[in-house]
Design goal:
GO terms for molecular function: sulfotransferase activity. This protein has helices spanning 22-29, 48-59, 65-69, 72-75, 84-89, 104-111, 125-138, 148-157, 165-174, 187-192, 194-204, 211-220, 223-227, 264-277, 286-300, and strands at residues 7-10, 13-16, 38-42, 97-100, 117-122, 182-186. It is α/β, with parallel strands linked by helices. The protein binds 3'-phosphate-adenosine-5'-phosphate sulfate.
Length: 301
């Protein structure tokens, strides 16, 4: 399955043809969820891999054996990727961890009435845009990103692969009222207090852990530990698909990297588009608050 230059258009959204086909997208939107499923949902570059690692480690009570021997795309496959059906066929049926980047309007109908546990992961969209930009440079199944200014315009217009960040978060968040079992975790929460986040996830998944187990989870899903784990850092992916000379999947892992990339004008424009697109959305911009809290802590120390 190369199809590196193929764009798979599905219901108005473009997806990389290297990983998606019409059939795989149809499979996803018609998927029969089990109440025991755990579904990790995110817009790309929001902390998906990190949450896959957290869920894996929580489920194995902090034991890294599983996460060190099985690639993340096998232990928590993307529902919409072409290989998912085959992977799920051989997964233990009692607790499947599934990942998706699909927006709510595409996956919501399949989840109707399901008690599957959903973890929605979001991140400051400015950091998402920066991380996605760098990823476009190394991932040969994504289009050339052009310069950052151009890329940012596409991000704000929602014309990048995977669609609009705004529609993604608004869709999933607006459903917290109607879908039970949705836990919203931000990248910033994970970054500022990984220990507390892991406890939150373990309680949501009804996998209570003792303190030593939580500490083991924290240790094994730190940035450095994940960067060195080739089951998660994508170094297993051949160079023609991800050009490792052009960057690392585990790139910086920081909050607020956008400040190194955005000009003052780009930031103002981003803010104004954000305000208008998020009008009426109940979500408070938690990541900005958390970003500021971090800056204050840094200033005090
Ligand atoms: S993808 O392609 O959608 O699956 O990417 P995703 O996993 O959502 O996001 C990748 C970014 O998450 C960072 N990351 C982490 N940051 C801090 N700590 C840990 N443990 C961690 N694991 C992954 C990764 O470095 C990417 O962010 P950037 O800003 O590019 O470094």
């Amino acid at each position: 399955m190369a199809r590196l230059d193929v764009t798979e258009k599905f219901q108005g959204i473009s997806f990389p043809g290297h990983l998606h086909t019409k059939d795989s997208l149809e499979f996803a939107v018609n998927f029969l969820f089990k109440d025991t499923d755990v579904l990790i949902v995110s817009y790309p570059k929001s902390g998906t891999t990190w949450m896959q690692e957290i869920v894996t480690l929580v489920s194995s009570r902090g034991d890294p054996q599983f996460s060190r021997t099985i690639p993340n795309w096998t232990r928590a496959p993307w529902l919409e990727h072409y290989y998912c059906a085959a992977v799920l066929k051989v997964s233990p049926p009692e607790r499947r961890t599934i990942t998706t980047h699909l927006p709510f309007h595409l996956l919501g109908p399949a989840l109707q009435g399901s008690k599957a546990k959903i973890i929605y992961v979001s991140r400051n969209p400015k950091d998402v845009a920066v991380s996605f930009y760098h990823f476009h440079k190394m991932a040969n199944f994504l289009p050339e990103p052009g310069d950052f200014h151009e890329f940012l315009d596409h991000f704000l217009e929602g014309t990048l692969y995977y669609g609009s960040w705004f529609e993604h978060i608004k869709g999933w968040i607006s459903r917290t009222a109607t879908i039970n079992n949705l836990l919203h975790i931000t990248y910033e929460q994970m970054s500022l207090d990984l220990h507390a986040t892991i406890k939150k996830v373990s309680s949501f998944l009804q996998c209570p852990l003792v303190e030593a187990e939580v500490n083991n989870c924290v240790k094994h899903c730190s940035f450095s530990s994940m960067r060195d784990n080739n089951m998660i850092n994508y170094t297993l992916v051949p160079n023609d698909i991800m050009d490792h000379s052009k960057g690392s999947f585990m790139r910086k892992g920081e909050i607020g990297d956008w400040k190194n990339m955005f000009t003052k004008e780009q930031n103002q424009h981003f803010e104004s588009v954000c305000t208008s697109k998020m009008k009426g959305c109940a979500l408070e911009f938690v990541w900005e608050k958390q970003d500021k809290e971090e800056t204050n802590t840094e200033e005090q120390t």
